[in-house]
Amino acid sequence: MNGGGAVKVKREGFTKVMGVLAVLFVLGGAAGAFWLAKVRATKPVEVEQEPGVESAAYTLAKGDYSNLTYDNISLDRPVYDRYTLKQRLAKGLPTMLPALPHYTAEKVAYLTFDDGPDDVNTPAILDVLKAKGVHATFYVLGGMVEKNPEVLKRIFAEGHAIGNHSYDHDYDRLYASKESFVEEMEQTDEAIFKVIGMRPFIIRAPGGTVGMFTADFYEHLNLLGYVEHDWNVLTEDATPEHPSAERQICYIDRRTAGHLKDNMALILMHCNGGKEETVRALPGIIDNLRAKGYRFGVVTPITPQPW
């Protein structure tokens, strides 16, 4: 056989081999597709579960709020919503919370910290709370959440309650109307939601509600499911005097010496820049309250109003 014939035979052989391989590939692909289709057909369909989680860390409200009952809300377990207010309205879900009685069974101290989270004093306060085995409530600003999301994640992960304290404390914009107030609450809700995947029901009005709220504010917030709490005890750590740690301890000791409404001390402190004395005072405040028989709780929709 000459060289040209040999080349021709080799080419024909190569073509046949490639043809066989192509057939096998097609058959294999068809078999694979059939097998994959069979697996997919037998795999159970994943259905989105109705949000509503009871855990050691927090209670997550169901869409219809049916799991938000007095017996189902723990004294030291925060309560959150899986949905933002905008999402609830878009889905046609209820926004107004069910009527709930307040918890007054025993003496409870609610340690609350406003104006964070910052990246210095808030972590220092978290360290003290962890060492003392106490959960507290942090009313955060939306702008600070955006600056320090990792600190907010730590607050959440360590079982403390997170509340909404407006976006940036701009009183003129915040209190211009009930609608502008809610706009700021929603803006901060969104900031919190982006970090922890849920939003709080509890809020605190900057400066407190006295002299700021009119009756229509309360009604409007109630319809939208926001629960506002002021305070009945404070360390005065936000005053121009900047009291020392020792003085702050004395303030709390004196103001919790007598009977307080509903057996509760709702204590206002701050965790932003310049509050180093609050950090120093906190261990003594906790020790004194324990010595007086107080149990510690976090603010929830069943926490009594301080006024």
UniProtKB/TrEMBL annotation:
Residues 107-297 form the NodB homology domain. Keywords: Membrane, Transmembrane, Transmembrane helix. PANTHER family: GLYCOSYL TRANSFERASE-RELATED, POLYSACCHARIDE DEACETYLASE YHEN-RELATED. The keyword Transferase does not apply. GO terms for molecular function: hydrolase activity, acting on carbon-nitrogen (but not peptide) bonds. The chain crosses the membrane at residues 17-37. InterPro entries: Glyco_hydro/deAcase_b/a-brl, NODB_dom, Polysacc_deacetylase_ArnD. Coiled coil: none annotated. GO terms for biological process: carbohydrate metabolic process. This is Polysaccharide deacetylase. It comes from the Bacteria.
